[in-house]
Amino acid sequence: MTTALRVLDPAIWDDWYGKLLLAFGGVPEAPEEIALWRELTECERSIGMWDGEDLVGTAGLFSFRMTVPGGASVAAAGVTMVSVQPTHRRRGVLRSMMRRQLDDIRAAGEPLAVLTASEPDIYGRFGYGIATQNAYAEIDTDRVRLSVPDGTDAVTLREVAPADGAAACEAVYARLVPTRPGMLERLPGWERLPVLDPPGEREGASPLRCVLAESDGEVTGYARFAVKADWDLAGPKGMVLLRDLDALDPASCAALWRFLFEIDLTSVIRTEGRPVDDPWQHLVSDIRRCQVRLKDRLHVRLVEVGAALEARAYTAPLDVVLEVTDPFCPWNEGRWRLTGDAKGASCARTSDAPDLRLGVRELGAAYLGGVSLDALAGAGRVREAREGALEAASAAFLSTRAPWLPHGF
Ligand SMILES: CC(=O)SCCNC(=O)CCNC(=O)[C@H](O)C(C)(C)COP(=O)(O)OP(=O)(O)OC[C@H]1O[C@@H](n2cnc3c(N)ncnc32)[C@H](O)[C@@H]1OP(=O)(O)O
After folding, report:
1. Residue 394 CA, distance from chain mean position
2. Which atom of ligand 1 is nearest to the CA of 116?
3. Catalytic one among 62, 64, 123, 173?
4. pTM (global) more than 0.95
5. Which are the contacts of 321, defined by CB distance < 8 A and separation ≥ 6?
6. Which CATH number fits domain 3-131: 3.40.630.30, 3.40.1010.10, 3.30.70.60, 3.30.70.1170?
7. pLDDT (tens digit, 9 = 90+) per residue, 28-56?
8. In the UniProt entry, which residues are flagged as the active site (predicted)?
9. Cβ(81)–Cβ(60) under 8 Å?
């Protein structure tokens, strides 16, 4: 096999994307979905692996900015559209593309790379750690009751066509981005993703619907959902398929959830991936009947350890020497002194004795503050070299608000 990596020529995007779909099983996507991904693809940051005349591998990057603990927005390359043709699997094509990508990301000066994985086993070997989880729920709204906070009744709700409400929803979303690690600033065009609703992919459900929450004449939240009607001999048993729900305050949040709970002829709400610390879990009477399940979501890789650790803030004052191993990106290897607090941090090379020893994958897992260094140490993946260092660093790395990635890419 004689292979060559080339930057994607926009003229062959259809073939390139077709190869990606083939590697994912060959199921066609709706034309509007393909059109959106064509528009969003950054061709100059996308690559193809060629075996002679055959395109056998694809991979792309998005130029995201992601919120990190402390609220800063940091450049994070979003790894996407990775595929290798079944005829060429397990011969190192992915490894070559990962090499090229991480070198390119470093050259672009982005301290972080992020991705969502088709299978969680693939990317750890390249230094990606699982940094966030999504909570999925299936709530029995016949049995589960909601307790809402004061002020909920003052929130008014208004249903609008999703396209008509999109600008107001985007304004709410933009205000939330800095408040939670893992959220991505919208790049131009990405506002179309949450309202993408191809009729062929509804599987019997209604078109997407949108309800706005308003307080004092201002939009303070929204829910986008579909309803899948169903009946049996006992009567209606429809399902609410919740795509997203975001709110700026507790009353708006509760008002939206109460609305979803009370939709006539439905008895279940099925959510998309929600934050693990989503407030709704504290409004319900019976969390067991909500069937919450967790799934890995955002995988984070520190491309430049020093710059990445410096870019976030820390929940408690911190002064620690980290000894980092990183065989795939050896420029990160060695000892780093990290000092910081809630206002910011600095991180520089040092020859001082290490306090903690860990791999770059563990740093990626802990980076957004959702996975504790202590838990990783419990699995033997972080080792303490100075007594007390683990507890202090673990507390400082944690984020008050759980990190969350609201949408895939
Ligand atoms: C961010 C995203 O886009 S996620 C989407 C990923 N794409 C898909 O899942 C589509 C279907 N699958 C594929 O296209 C391919 O099987 C890929 C891309 C996952 C792997 O491509 P390959 O070229 O076969 O991988 P490559 O040969 O470079 O393997 C590199 C290493 O990863 C391992 N690996 C590759 N795929 C997998 C997998 N699915 N599960 C576990 N390990 C894997 C290999 O065993 C190898 O390990 P080693 O370094 O210890 O020997």
Report:
1. 22
2. 1
3. 123
4. yes
5. 335, 336, 337, 338, 350, 352, 353, 354, 355, 356
6. 3.40.630.30
7. 999 999 999 999 999 999 999 999 999 99
8. 123 (proton donor), 409 (proton acceptor)
9. yes
